[in-house]
Every structure is written in structure tokens, then in C-alpha cells.
Amino acid sequence: MTTFPATAREAVAGIADGATVMLGGFGAAGQPVELIEALIDTGAGDLTVVNNNAGNGDRGLAALIALGRVRRIICSFPRQPDSWHFDRRYRAGEIELELVPQGNLAERIRAAGAGIGGFFTPTGYGTPLAEGKETRVIDGRGYVLEYPLAADYALIAAHTADAAGNLVYRKTARNFGPIMAAAARTTVAQVRAVVPVGGIDPEHVVTPSIYVDRVVRVEAP
Amino acid sequence: MIGTDELAALVAADIPPGAYVNLGIGLPTRVADHFAAGSGVVLHTENGMLGMGPQAHGDDVDPDLVNAGKVPVTELPGAAYFHHADSFAMMRGGHLDCCVLGAYQVSADGDLANWHTGRPDDIPAVGGAMDLAIGARETFVMMTLFAKDGTSKLVPACTYPLTGVRCVSRVYTDHAVFLLDRAGGVRVRELFGITLDELRRRVPVPLDAGPA
């Protein structure tokens, strides 16, 4: 059952040192900045973070990295013009990077949420990112074995929740939200609006409430 | 030699009407400006959208609507949004007709290198490059033919870390367009102000100039 804590700080309660935390977002679009700021306030560290990127600018994931709370990051595209906090920690050997092709990252997250034990993907076959991994030729095509990627917590941003905990997103801010919600033991969503049950057409629900544990409303920036 | 816009127009003219297309970051994004009116080409952006419109400016900028390069864009009528796993299933599943990517190097048999210089001090970033390279039905590369030091970027074997194996079918460059059969055969389709002899002197790959 989805609960509706009053504050972002209550919404992220329980994230312990050493936890694996998925953070939604693609750059700034869909990044749950207020939840990440609340996570920073808890003081939790030694985290493994899963995100497409490694922080942009000085807020959100970038701030978490700047404060040295992230031991390991699993992502596809860390290097960006404004990823200076990650760049500094990485070059100093203070953060561990697991680089994953973007589609493999998404599918590994999806697989975890769907109870799949692993899958063979053509992406990365014959490249340095497949080194040391099991491969197989199926129907004449090369594939790489990839394993699911689960998390203790997912922090995501959606646009609207109903009081049952169903979510809809907005435009490309959807990105990793639906698959991360399914892949984490506890999923926390920040939303801009909470509407009564019935306020979202059941045909339009993107993430059903079964994947959503806590919802907190934050003011639209 | 031809300019970037001329080359982008050439790529656009080779993409069939109604195709579903992904344009990589950098040079390939210029192709979007050259589709004929009513071509019906639908642009895919791997962060989760079909029907991407031109870059957004001013009041049209919406932080929730960006392309794979995180540049604010617009949506066209008929656009659709979906999550990342669906977006990459579209590529991997062979539903995308074509992608156009930039490259550091392409080998004669169609290997692509475009994600990492391999220098130890570089921070690697792969993003969707590997998925696109092997996922689209046709992978076109758009690049300058020669590196700054004058060496050919069309090579017998890539020396940069690979993005995908035998995936590139066409290479559009400022000096020539090359068709690759992905078994080592490279045919020159057209030349831009360079003779075949000179091209053969500067590109260390056997070049076939006959008709297909």
C-alpha cells in the first residue's frame, strides 16, 4: 500500500549507509532533486547509485557526489560538460564507476523488476564493455550475458499521483521512472500533484501503485 | 570537398519517406534540418520519444522535454513518449529504420569506434551509442574523412575502442560517400572534388569504384 509522507525527509527515511539507490532522471529531466536533497540531509553515505549520468551542475546527484556520499556509480554517460564534481572524484580515485551501455542499463533494471535472471543482448558484443562477460552466438549473431540490476531504494520524479499511488509522468521526464519503480524494494516518488482516486483515468496510468511505496508532493520549481 | 549542410542534405535525401530515424549527437543532428516537407520521417530520441520536433527556444523551452543531448526540443503532432527500456527495445528489436552517428573511425568491414578515445586520462561515456550502432536496421556514419593530422578515419581495422562490430553500412564524408557490404568490401558512391586516385592514396582501404 502506498503511503503519503508529509515531507521529502520522511519519504526517504530508512536509507542506510551502504544502500543501493536508483535515482530517476536523464540529466535534469525527471531527476528527483528534492528527494536527493532530503537523502543528503539524512547523512547516508557509502552509497551505490544507479543513474544514467553522474550529476549535472551542483544540485541533486551532483551534490551527493560532491559530498563524498557515493562510493560507486553505475551509469552510462558520466562525462558531460557540467559533471565537474564526478570528474574530480573519479580522477582522484574516490568513486568507483561501472559503465554500462544505456540500453543494457535500462534492460538490466527492467529485468530486475520483472524477475528475469539474466538476458543475452547484442549491445556491446565485441567491444571492451563486454570483456570478461559470457557470450553466445544465437542464430548467427553475437550476444552478451547481462544480469539484472536491483536496488534497495528507487527515488523517482513523476508528474501526478492519485491517492491510490498510481503515477503518470510528463514528456521525456518519464525516462527511467517506471522501470526503477519496479526494480527497487522501496520506491519513493516525488510528484507535483496528488489527485483523488479516480483523478487519473485507469487507461492512462503509467506506473501502477503496486510499484510505489511512498509518494510526496513537492512544489513545482 | 563539400560542407556540413550539403552533406546533411545528402544524408536526408537518402532516408526514405516515413522512416523512423535516430540522429546521433553532434554532426548528425544537422540532418534534421534537411528532410523534405511532408517526408513523414519520424525522429526517435533514445531518452524516450518518437515524433521529436526542432530545438526549442525562448518560451517553448520545457525542462521535461529534452533530446538525447539534453537539449530542449519540441514535440510534433503524433508524438509518443515511453520509458527507457521501451525506447531501447525499439532499437534492439530492429524497429528503427536508420540511425546516423558520428565516428572516430570506421573499418572497411563496418566496425564502428565512436565512444572512447582510449586515452587513460579520459573519462569514458558510452550512452546509447552501442545500442544504436547494432540496433537500427541501417547504421549510417557522418564524419570528416580525415582526422586533424590528415590520417584517414576509414581504416582497415579500428585502433580506437569499438562501439559495434560490422554495423556500419554507409559512410558520408566531406570527400566521398562509401557503401560498405560489411564483409570488407567498400565501394565509392560519389566523390566531392577529389579524384579516385588521390582518395586511394590517402585512404588505406581497397576501394571499389564500379557500379553496385
TrEMBL record, chain A:
Residues that span the membrane, as ranges: none
GO molecular-function term, one example from the UniProt record: CoA-transferase activity
Entry annotated with the keyword Iron-sulfur: no
Keyword annotations of the record: Transferase
Cross-referenced PROSITE patterns: COA_TRANSF_1
Coiled-coil residue windows: none
Origin: domain of life: Bacteria
One Pfam match: CoA_trans
Similarity comment: Belongs to the 3-oxoacid CoA-transferase subunit A family.
Protein name: 3-oxoacid CoA-transferase subunit A
Organism: Dactylosporangium aurantiacum
Automatic annotation (TrEMBL), chain B:
Keyword list, A-Z: Transferase
Cited SUPFAM superfamilies: NagB/RpiA/CoA transferase-like (SSF100950)
PANTHER family noted in UniProt: KETOACID-COENZYME A TRANSFERASE (PTHR13707), SUCCINYL-COA:3-KETOACID COENZYME A TRANSFERASE SUBUNIT B-RELATED (PTHR13707:SF57)
A GO term for molecular function: CoA-transferase activity
Annotated protein name in UniProt: 3-oxoacid CoA-transferase subunit B
Pfam families reported for this sequence: CoA_trans
Protein family: Belongs to the 3-oxoacid CoA-transferase subunit B family.
